[in-house]
Amino acid sequence: xxxxxxxxxxxxxxxxxxxxxxxxxxxxxxxxxxxxxxxxxxxxxxxxxxxxxxxxxxxxxxxxxxxxxxxxxxxxxxxxxxxxxxxxxxxxxxxxxxxxxxxxxxxxxxxxxxxxxxxxxxxxxxxxxxxxxxxxxxxxxxxxxxxxxxxxxxxxxxxxxxxxxxxxxxxxxxxxxxxxxxxxxxxxxxxxxxxxxxxxxxxxxxxxx
Length: 209
What we know:
2 domains; 48% helix; five-stranded antiparallel β-sheet; alpha+beta
């Protein structure tokens, strides 16, 4: 009977230790595991945010260049037709290149087939020497505003050779699909279209006598 006492005490001690482990250490270990998971999730989120930050910093560096490109595009293909500005530019080029005279006849704007922009045709008639006309057409082709010469004809000028006369159809463009007041792009209603001009009546044939 005396030998069972130490055994019982040892078993009781082990039981107490087990109870302490279950009651104190295991909950702490569970909390530590949960914290470790939270730390791992936070580290993963931090890595994602770092990637996003780097992307934003790269976008910020590119923003100035993108704005420059957009500004240049807006000058090449503006958001308004600006016929007065176009006519002024064409007259200014005529003065710079020394052509003898210029006739400028804007045509009716129309919406492009894609529907993304409008086409502004302008008929230009100029007279002058060969080099003056050549320089005039070159200056138009190299304007800040995008243009395209669709047709060109050359002939003797009103004063005879060596003076020449050139007639050209030039297209300019705008992102305004309505092309400004008074225009007729492709999406007009029937009442917006001007009625056709009736031909003049032919004279009645006269009878002899």
